[in-house]
Specification:
alpha/beta, Rossmann fold, 7-stranded parallel beta sheet
Amino acid sequence: MLLKNKIALVTGSTNNIGLEIARAFAREGAKVIVHSRHEEAAKGVAEEIGGDYFAADVSRPEELEQLFDRIQQKHRRLDILVNTVAHSTKNDILETSLAEWNRIMAINLTGYFICIQHAARIMKDNGGGVIINISAGSGERGSPGTAVYSISKGAINALTRQAAVDLAPHKIRVNAVISGIVGTPLGSREMGNRKLEYDSIPLKRIGQPEEVAEAVLFLASEKAGYITNAILPVDGGRMNSMGSVSRG
């Protein structure tokens, strides 16, 4: 088992990519702390995989503090943190209000930052750990009509790189996975059979959330023990393809 006896927190782990990461981690022996804003949803997944659960709004620092206090008190350590929570928008720069900017940044970026800080303090006192952030291709290239989302994802990539450098002395590895068009709300609800999007993916298909989860599992395991400060695209080759179309 790749994660036997590890304690792992996966934020946003009741649907889509986060859910499949939680399932993969549990399958490989980890005790997973399932997280959601909705307690019943978190409890249901925790019961399915034999994990713990906690409800918190990642845009509220005080609720995140309670989450990590619970982890410290109940589990005494945290070996792995995976940040997956994200909200998207459909406005460009000129259409984006300050209120929308602040709301999306609070969830997509500040929430990641606060979780990293809390997790790293626990990990540092227990000899190290692993942090993995879920990002998107639009953070590297921009995407029409998703201004704040794309900017927040680019900032997550920068946060990943900085955290990797700052936390390496504490034996904490920090990486990111750029998810392509897979089982995200965009992938599952809006893609349908739009052939243009298939043509923009060199592997000619939309991915599955399980495929992203397997990449995250590898980065979380000791098999990736010499990997930090990496940003891994799991997108069928789309981001780095000359024929890619900017979306997602």
